């Protein structure tokens, strides 16, 4: 069985989950569901990043110990995953013993390979990003420096261990050239190449200014840099340092991340892996940010979007659908409740839901819910079934290329064509003169719904299950291998009473 490893970044626990966290998780969950239905052995991991100065400060601010604080906040992310019905295989916390073992082993291998040295660091540091910045990356305002996201940085001087990042500049550039699909989308790849070409400095990988983190074994006054700690999580979930059982997953690894952390995943992480003599992930894809009705989302503006409240108000499938279809993966998106309502009403309620409802109701009214026509097995020239059986390869190609919104587009173009077929056939008039032909039209539509229901499962898991249940499809026959005419629904197949798939929002 083919294997694939799908990962979110692990989410930092200094604050509550927001729409960005749910977006990344839903993307990965959609991919995981898709590949499982396509007979892949899927490892899908997510989790929480629980060390560092930000956490230490947040815990103190809340009058809690760091351990108690991360336990509480990490649970919020678990709850979000439950809310979106995530199918992740693993939830890793960087405070787990297995992760500490993995980090220390990784650090020791870097040292053994002569990639680490002790020196002193002077530079601009962002507490929010847990990252040092070169002055050329910052914006000066009066006598202070700020990141591009308007986060003030502080000048820090301290003893630090360094990773010889500068030695890997050419290796990284050669790798980017050899594997152009490694970083996606293309615009982000170009950004990374430009950053590396501008020159890499050795990377500070330890801190002495706080205590909440994984200690360096040979020098306990030093805490491992949070980004070493966080990135190693992808190896921890594979059982590192023992990769024997799960090594094949790593060869097919896809990291889905937000564009704000691309530098860490596409520059630091590959260089660290090269230095540790480990293979690189197959693909790193950076998605965009969400705004709220055209405005940047921030706590200071009070316009953060709580995914829990949106799901409670509109439904999980509706929320998933909006996020996945509204924007092309990799681009920024704008969220508004009106936009969600309009998208759901137009696509789900009117286009799909109404078509299914009126077709099956008509079948029950005139044929007692039983398919009345025996379809031919050779359907190569039979519209709409010809297009139905050509749909999955189109969608599959899009998903493999991480074009999720375009994959959904393919499905809904077909649904629109089915609506046109229904309206042009006019079974409500046809039945007056030709019950046989009417039965053929209805059977073709119902069989098309079977195909749609199976393909939609990764995107709309609740509604697709309801649709397939209504069609009375055996649970064993709902994977992608059954998307062909061999398993066509035919004369005598009994459906269940239809239920509303998508209520309209006013």
Structural overview:
By secondary structure, the chain is of the alpha/beta class. It folds into two domains: 3-287, HUPs (Rossmann fold, 3-Layer(aba) Sandwich), CATH 3.40.50.620; 336-487, Isoleucyl-tRNA Synthetase, Domain 1, CATH 1.10.730. Helices cover 46% and strands 16% of the residues. The chain is built from 18 helices and 19 strands. It has helices spanning 19-37, 53-61, 66-83, 97-112, 169-178, 186-197, 226-231, 233-236, 247-250, 262-275, 307-314, 316-326, 337-367, 385-400, 404-425, 427-430, 435-455, 461-470; strands at residues 3-7, 11-12, 41-49, 90-93, 116-126, 131-133, 139-141, 144-146, 154-163, 183-184, 203-204, 206-207, 215-216, 219-224, 253-258, 283-287, 290-292, 295-296, 333-335. The strands form five sheets. Strands 1, 2, 3, 4, 10, 15 and 16 form a seven-stranded parallel β-sheet that branches. The protein is elongated. 42% of the residues are buried. The mean pLDDT is 93.
């Amino acid at each position: 069985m083919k294997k694939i490893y799908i990962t979110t970044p692990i989410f930092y626990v200094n604050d509550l989950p927001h729409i960005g966290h749910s977006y990344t998780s839903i993307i990965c969950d959609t991919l995981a569901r898709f590949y499982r239905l396509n007979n892949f052995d899927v490892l899908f991991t997510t989790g929480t990043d629980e060390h560092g100065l930000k956490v230490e400060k947040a815990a103190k601010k809340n009058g809690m110990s760091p351990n108690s604080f991360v336990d509480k906040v990490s649970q919020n992310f678990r709850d979000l995953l439950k809310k979106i019905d995530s199918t992740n295989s693993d939830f890793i916390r960087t405070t787990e013993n297995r992760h500490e073992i993995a980090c220390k082993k990784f650090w020791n291998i870097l040292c053994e390979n002569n990639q680490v040295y002790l020196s002193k660091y002077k530079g601009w540091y962002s507490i929010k990003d847990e990252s040092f910045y070169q002055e050329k990356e910052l914006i000066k305002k009066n006598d202070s420096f700020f990141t591009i996201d308007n986060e003030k940085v502080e000048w820090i001087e301290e003893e630090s261990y360094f990773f010889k990042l500068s030695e890997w500049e050419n290796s990284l550039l050669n790798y980017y050239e050899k594997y152009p699909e490694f970083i996606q989308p293309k615009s982000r790849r170009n950004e990374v190449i430009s950053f590396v070409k501008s020159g890499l400095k050795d990377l500070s990988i330890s801190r002495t200014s706080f205590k909440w983190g994984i200690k360096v074994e040979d020098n306990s006054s030093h805490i491992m840099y949070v980004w070493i700690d966080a990135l190693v999580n992808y190896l921890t979930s594979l059982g590192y340092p023992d990769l024997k059982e799960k090594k094949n997953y790593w060869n097919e690894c896809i990291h889905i991340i937000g564009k704000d952390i691309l530098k860490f995943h596409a520059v630091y992480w590959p260089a660290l892996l090269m230095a540790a003599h480990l293979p690189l992930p197959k693909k790193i894809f950076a998605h965009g940010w969400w705004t709220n009705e055209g405005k940047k989302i921030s706590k200071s503006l009070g316009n953060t979007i709580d995914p829990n409240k949106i799901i409670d108000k509109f439904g999980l499938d509706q929320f998933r659908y909006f996020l996945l279809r509204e924007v092309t993966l990799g681009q920024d998106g704008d969220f508004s409740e009106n936009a969600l309502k309009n998208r759901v009403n137009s696509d789900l309620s009117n286009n799909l839901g109404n078509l299914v409802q009126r077709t099956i109701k008509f079948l029950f009214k005139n044929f007692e819910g039983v398919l009345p026509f025996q379809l031919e097995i050779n359907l190569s020239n039979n519209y709409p079934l010809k297009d139905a059986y050509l749909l999955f390869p189109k969608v599959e190609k899009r998903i493999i290329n991480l074009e999720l919104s375009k994959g959904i587009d393919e499905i809904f173009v077909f649904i629109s064509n089915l609506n046109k077929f229904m309206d042009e056939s006019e079974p409500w008039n046809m039945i007056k003169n030709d019950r046989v032909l009417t039965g053929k039209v209805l059977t073709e539509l119902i069989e098309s719904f079977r195909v749609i229901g199976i393909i939609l499962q990764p995107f709309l898991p609740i509604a697709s299950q309801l649709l397939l249940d209504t069609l009375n499809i055996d649970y064993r026959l709902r994977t992608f291998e059954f998307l062909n005419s061999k398993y066509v629904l035919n004369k005598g197949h009994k459906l269940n009473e239809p239920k509303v798939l998508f209520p309209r929002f006013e």
